[in-house]
Design goal:
Acetoacetate decarboxylase-like, 14-stranded mixed beta sheet, 2 helices, 14 strands
Length: 229
């Protein structure tokens, strides 16, 4: 009788442990971003409901460091976002337009998995959304980071790191990156060249906001930007 009570108690403890263990998110990824936009350094979108101008035109080159969606491994997948947040992203959660470009090395399963994850991370309803395929290249040499979409014919970024007072760079901490739950800080850069000519949209800037950042995002409640709350 005593052994049955011990077994029942052990079973109850197992059930309690299982019930208290958080479920694994359906999807999760850690990704490295190279990003530039049309606002001056630092982009006010992260602290306000409007951009510096009635638009915020951007390029983002992204590589997934590690991640999954269901049984799909996302590690090594690359995509590029080109678009314009417009003037209502902070008030009505509406973006003007966006083009999502997948690198040829990103397979169909990864693309299908990443598409809803990308939309969830930014949490915006886009007036125009297009998807295409184009090669993505990112390189770094000293204080200069270069990124090209379609061999530089569709979009390009050439960024220079902000040295900071001690010459070791500037990193902005404790600021949300859109809906990503965590990030390691905004490593400040300034654009030498930030341009795009893709799907009927064209822009070109220099001496504007840019940064490098690594994010951690997963299924669940999004973090949200300061200005969008």
């Amino acid at each position: 009788m005593r052994s049955w009570k011990q077994i029942s108690l052990l079973t109850l403890c197992v059930f309690i442990l299982l019930a208290s263990t958080p479920a694994k998110p359906a999807w999760q990824m850690k990704a490295d971003y190279v990003e530039a936009c049309s606002c001056h350094l630092f982009c006010p979108c992260y602290f306000n409901k409007h951009a510096e101008h009635p638009h915020c035109e951007f390029n983002m080159a992204v590589k997934v460091r590690e991640g999954y969606s269901g049984n799909t491994n996302l590690a090594g997948a690359k995509y590029w976002l080109t678009g314009d947040l417009g003037d209502e992203w902070g008030t009505n959660k509406k973006g003007e337009w966006v083009v999502v470009s997948f690198d040829p090395g990103t397979n169909k399963e990864q693309r299908d998995a990443l598409a809803p994850m990308i939309l969830k991370t930014y949490g915006l309803e886009w007036g125009e959304l297009k998807v295409q395929e184009a090669p993505i290249e990112v390189s770094r040499s000293g204080d200069i980071v270069s990124a090209m979409l379609g061999g530089g014919q569709m979009a390009t970024m050439k960024l220079k790191r902000e040295a900071g007072a001690d010459g070791n760079g500037v990193v902005l901490k404790n600021v949300k990156y859109f809906g990503a739950q965590n990030n390691d800080g905004f490593e400040m850069y300034r654009s030498l060249d930030h341009s795009a000519n893709v799907q009927g949209h064209k822009f070109s800037y220099s001496d504007r906001n840019a940064f490098l950042i690594s994010i951690d995002t997963h299924e669940g409640e999004a973090g949200g930007m300061s200005g969008s709350k």
